[in-house]
């Protein structure tokens, strides 16, 4: 039977084998468990300045506590990262990030007419990149990329599972599959350009300057003739990845 005396703090219930360590702890713990009002009253009624010995004990206890908290915080962060990596990229997104709109629906609702000027002022790549970064704060962003998975994208969309049932989840999309969506966006810009032409038909037909603008914009909407569609899409994927990538280990992904 162990009859050795234990010194227990009545505030945090921590046990101490040595009275020296208990005495060093109790003053700080008693003070830290008081309400803000009680602390203020105690400061107001101090009859004497704490001795150097008392201050030194308080500081040592505070250092021990801070060190412990920092270690616990580091452990929690490490556990969070390990947990994410065990789950995998798509699995972690399915658990933590659920937009209220699928990628397909979101892409069909992007206001491409807003980004048409990006093409007129720059090029088709610029317009497609701008449209792919369109965000609806209420619904979330149904496309994601991780630093650790270079040039790969995850989209939140409807799929058919092994039982031929429809379900919505995050899925990995690469290369040619993503290019289909980029081609869809470029076609959407052609539709918006046709609307722009219809709205400005009189000026295009009767104003030489406007006619030149029309030809210039038309070439830009069609894409740079010096680039093949494959090369253009590759550049878009690379630039989009750089713009939206996040670290898998970062909080709040």
Question: What does the model show?
Answer:
This protein is α+β, with helices and mostly antiparallel strands and 253 residues long. The protein has two domains: 7-86, no CATH class; 89-246, no CATH class. It is 61% helix and 10% strand. It contains eleven helices and six strands. The chain has helices at 19-32, 36-44, 52-87, 89-96, 103-108, 112-121, 124-132, 175-199, 201-206, 208-222, 229-244; strands at residues 7-8, 15-16, 143-146, 153-160, 166-173, 245-246. The strands form two sheets. A four-stranded mixed sheet has the order 5-4-3-6. The radius of gyration is 31 Å and the shape is elongated. The model is unreliable at 78-86 (pLDDT under 50).
What is the string of helix and strand elements?
A: EEHHHHHHHEEEHHHHE
What is the distance, rounded to the nearest whole angstrom, between the alpha carbons of the first and last residues? 53 Å
Main sheet specs: 4 strands, mixed
Number of domains: 2
Q: Strand order, biggest sheet?
A: 5-4-3-6
The helix-and-strand class reads: alpha+beta
Helix content: 55-70%
Mean pLDDT score = 78
Count of DSSP H/I helices: 11
Tally of extended strands? 6
Give the percentage of residues in beta strands. 5-15%
């Amino acid at each position: 039977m162990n009859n050795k005396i234990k010194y227990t703090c009545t505030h945090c219930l921590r046990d101490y084998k040595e009275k020296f360590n208990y005495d060093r702890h109790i003053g700080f713990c008693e003070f830290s468990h008081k309400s803000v009002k009680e602390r203020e009253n105690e400061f107001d009624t101090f009859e004497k300045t704490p001795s150097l010995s008392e201050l030194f004990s308080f500081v040592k206890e505070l250092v021990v506590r801070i060190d412990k908290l920092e270690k616990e915080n580091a452990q929690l962060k490490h556990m969070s990262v390990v947990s994410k990596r065990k789950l995998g990229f798509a699995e972690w997104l399915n658990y933590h990030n659920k937009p209220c709109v699928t990628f397909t629906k979101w892409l069909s609702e992007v206001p491409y007419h807003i980004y048409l000027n990006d093409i007129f002022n720059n090029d088709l790549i610029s317009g497609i990149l701008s449209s792919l970064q369109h965000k609806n704060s209420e619904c979330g962003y149904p496309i994601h990329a991780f630093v650790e998975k270079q040039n790969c994208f995850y989209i939140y969309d409807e799929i058919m599972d092994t039982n031929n049932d429809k379900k919505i989840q995050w899925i990995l999309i690469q290369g040619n599959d993503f290019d289909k969506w980029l081609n869809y966006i470029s076609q959407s810009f052609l539709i918006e350009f046709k609307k722009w032409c219809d709205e400005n038909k009189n000026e295009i037909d009767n104003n030489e300057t406007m006619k030149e603008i029309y030809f210039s914009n038309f070439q830009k909407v069609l894409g740079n003739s010096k680039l093949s569609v494959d090369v253009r899409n590759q550049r878009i994927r690379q630039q989009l990845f750089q713009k939206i990538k996040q670290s898998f280990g970062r909080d709040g992904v």
